[in-house]
Design goal:
The structure holds two protein chains of two kinds. Chain A is mainly α. Chain A is built from 14 helices and no strands. The chains are: A mainly alpha, B alpha/beta.
Chain lengths: ~300, ~350
């Protein structure tokens, strides 16, 4: 009755050979194609470096003015704009200005990539049920698979640095915007779509003049979630060499520097709160017309 | 009778994945219930034949679930039929390609919806101009035209408001203006006034009738409200379980209900107000006062009662004598209600 006590499994040697074989062929593949893939991501790298340098090179008062302006334009709230400026000043005062700029550039670029890739995928999912049923499990996978599992092949392919970090952040942060774009478009009132059809709209007209505008609040909730998740990845991304506020946190964890960890951690939290509140307020304002608040 | 604008022939709609395969059983008499119980398919429309005359208001009446909204959506192919033919101006709607269909929807038909279906993120002016914008009309022309229609439905000054800022009645005026703005000859109105309260509804009916005097559109008007049907319909078709059970002008429906279902339907209406003298007119002539053929029974009774021999002559709209009417006939028409009140019969 031995066979009952132990689960029938592949022999140890076979298993080792299998793993070795796959590892070997992936390593080989990445060695022969690594350069090409790296070249493919080069523009991304240059953009990221350019933005980071630009942010660091810009005099700090100008950055503060831009921050205040964007926060006010997004939320139409002086309190939020003022709060953002004060937070930035505090972070800078405690010597984290450069790291903060690096983090902001990473978050901005990854959010832009997620929007540029995620919204079209979401639109396709909303149009074709088949695409939806094909992509949903992939999104589930992306959201549940331990980050390090996909971090490894990315590092093997592209080495350590900003671009693999960026890809890791995007993989982690893109699902919500895809899901909420799809959901938002699918939730648009059927009667309104019927009206658009009845007046002879083409698919494109319906998409751009009815579906996307009406789905915007949901799409924006997706953007908000994407930003939040990208920020959450900052520390993990620093493990593969991404500069920014995550790096000191990592150092602090490794060396038990309590204050360093706390300060940088709080700076990330402050950024998260600012991004979240401003983008949420903006999303809410997009919805104003529904309740007729805007002109009353 | 004016020329036929829209012809619906042998139209069937069976909802469900294998609708087509049940066409023949349904033609052979399979009932709606049987189809639902044994095959889980829903019989939406059952052999609809209807000629809709040009420039008239055709009302399609029925209770909820009778298929009236399904029927109106076949006319601009928002719903595809399972079998049958629909022609507009002798053009086959069902053989149109997607592109032709889009063009047809843009130029030939427009639609007003029960729940308004306005675009909440666009202003009143933008909503009214929607059909024109889609057609690629120049902005200035679209603006001018939409302004004109906003004015004609009495919403001047509200151009820059959003739909959510308007009351239900005002929103439906926007819906009406949007439908009229494209100048399409066919106007489809799907329970357009059903969501409005009674006073506003009467208001909207008046606006529609007033506009129709100038516009002469071919209007297909869906309603579940008999009073509304009698008030605005030039012709009425009554739908039940996806089947037309009677069609005719309002007088015919009231004077000669096709079955118990319809008699019961019409039993609560004010016959004195709805029935017109021409429906009870007899041959011959009388020396009494002249009554207009479209004079209501209520008004006629007063006159007849004052006449010496209780008789009046009837004249058409050109003043030509076409018959006579007696007090007895008028009273008879008021009480001509032999309908069985036994509702169980058709439940």
């Amino acid at each position: 009755m031995d066979w009952l006590a132990e689960f029938p499994s592949l022999g140890k040697r076979d298993l080792r050979d299998l793993k070795k074989g796959i590892d070997g062929s992936f390593r080989e593949w990445s060695r022969s194609n690594g350069d090409a893939i790296e070249a493919f991501f080069d523009p991304l790298y240059f953009f990221l470096v350019w933005l980071e340098k630009l942010l660091i090179a810009t005099p700090w008062p100008i950055i503060l003015i831009i921050v205040a302006g964007l926060a006010y334009l997004g939320s139409r709230s002086w309190k939020l704009a003022l709060g953002s400026v004060v937070s930035f000043m505090l972070i800078g005062y405690f010597g984290m200005w450069k790291d903060m700029m690096a983090t902001i550039s990473l978050i901005s670029v990854s959010t832009l990539i997620c929007i540029a890739v995620g919204i079209p995928i979401g639109i396709l999912m909303s149009r074709y049920d088949r695409v939806q049923s094909a992509i949903t499990p992939i999104l589930d996978l992306m959201q549940t698979i331990p980050i390090f599992v996909y971090l490894l092949p990315v590092v093997m392919l592209l080495g350590i640095g900003r671009v693999p970090g960026l890809i890791a952040v995007c993989v982690y942060a893109i699902p919500p915007i895809i899901r909420l774009t799809n959901l938002g478009i699918r939730l648009v009132d059927k009667e309104i779509l019927e009206a658009a059809d009845a007046f002879g709209s083409s698919y494109r007209q319906k998409l751009f003049s009815v579906q996307i505008p009406l789905a915007l609040p949901n799409i924006f909730a997706g953007v908000n979630q994407t930003i939040m998740m990208a920020l959450a990845m900052v520390v993990i991304a620093s493990m593969i060499g991404v500069k920014g506020l995550g790096m000191p946190v990592l150092q602090a964890v490794q060396n038990q520097y309590l204050t360093l960890g706390l300060m940088n951690g709080l700076a990330i939290v402050a950024l998260a709160i600012i991004f979240d509140r401003v983008s949420q307020r903006y999303g809410q304002r997009l919805q104003a017309h529904r309740y007729g608040k805007e002109h009353e | 009778m004016s020329k036929t604008k829209l012809k619906i022939e042998n139209l069937y709609k069976i909802f469900g994945p294998r609708g087509k395969s049940f066409i023949d059983p349904v033609k052979d008499g399979m009932s709606k219930q049987e189809l639902l119980d044994n095959h889980s398919h829903v019989l939406g429309l059952n052999n609809i034949n209807l000629d809709i005359p040009e420039q008239r208001i055709q009302v399609i009446m029925g209770l909820s679930g009778s298929g009236k909204s399904t029927l109106i959506r076949h006319i601009n192919r928002l719903i595809e039929p399972t079998a049958g033919a629909i022609t507009v101006d002798d053009e086959d709607i069902l053989s149109m390609s997607q592109l032709q269909l889009r063009e047809f929807r843009r130029k030939k038909t427009s639609m007003v919806f029960q729940k308004f279906a306005l675009l909440p993120h666009k202003t009143v002016a933008q909503n009214v101009a929607y059909g024109l914008t889609i057609q690629g009309e120049q902005e200035s022309i679209a603006k001018e035209k939409s302004h004109k229609w906003i004015e004609s439905v009495g919403l001047s000054g509200f151009e820059e408001r959003y739909p959510a800022q308007l009351s239900g009645g005002m929103q439906q005026r926007v819906g009406l203006a949007r439908a009229l703005a494209t100048d399409a000859p066919i106007l489809l109105m799907d329970e357009a006034f059903s969501a409005l309260d009674p006073l506003i509804r009467t208001d909207m009916q008046n606006i529609l009738l007033e506009l129709q005097k100038d516009l002469h559109k071919t209007i297909i008007f869906i309603t579940h409200d008999l009073d509304e049907a009698l008030r605005i319909g030039d012709n009425i078709a009554i739908l039940r379980d996806g089947k037309i059970i009677q069609k005719g002008d309002p007088q015919q429906i009231i004077m000669k209900p096709a079955d118990d279902y319809i008699s019961d339907f019409i039993k609560d209406i004010n016959r004195g107000k709805v029935i017109e003298v021409k429906s009870i007119m007899q041959k011959g002539s009388s020396k009494g006062t002249s009554l207009d053929s479209s004079c209501s029974l209520e008004d006629a009774l007063k006159v007849l009662n004052n006449e010496k021999n209780n008789e009046c002559s009837v004249v058409d709209d050109k003043g030509k004598k076409i018959g006579k009417v007696t007090l007895d006939a008028a009273i008879g028409a008021l009480f001509r209600e032999k309908a069985s009140r036994n509702k169980e019969k058709y439940k």
